[in-house]
Amino acid sequence: MTEKSIHRLFEVSIWLKGLHSLIEIAGGILIALVSTSDITSFVKALTEDQLIPNDLIANYLLRSASELSIATKSFAAFYLLSHGVVKVFLVAGLLRDKAWAYPASLVTLSLFIAYQIYRFTLTHSIALILLTLFDLLVIWLILHEYRLIRLHLPRR
Q: Is residue 135 within 8 Å of 109, Cβ to Cβ?
């Protein structure tokens, strides 16, 4: 793979991280503004026509919505908002080639990965594994770019 290809992959992955961050921010705001009863009603409406006795996803969604506490909802909103805002800030720094953004992103993504692994042990969510694998790829790309910057080598 050429340096130009790796740099393009870096840029695409950072833009995807930025998009994911904006989705997290929007989700956090939405969760903060919507009541727990509205969330339960929405999930019931979403799953009522598709509910069959062995529909694991629909049953999981219904059980989760009905057990959603205000504290859990508040945590989810805070988590999504803070996670999204931090990543948007780092993405902006990386896209502007700010030297501080590379090590800050590496530390932050490593902490997010550690938390995602912890959450995986509790939830066994395939989505967390996929997100963690993507974050590992992004970390490798950031390390690669940062090495080139520090050695004053061309990236494009």
A: yes
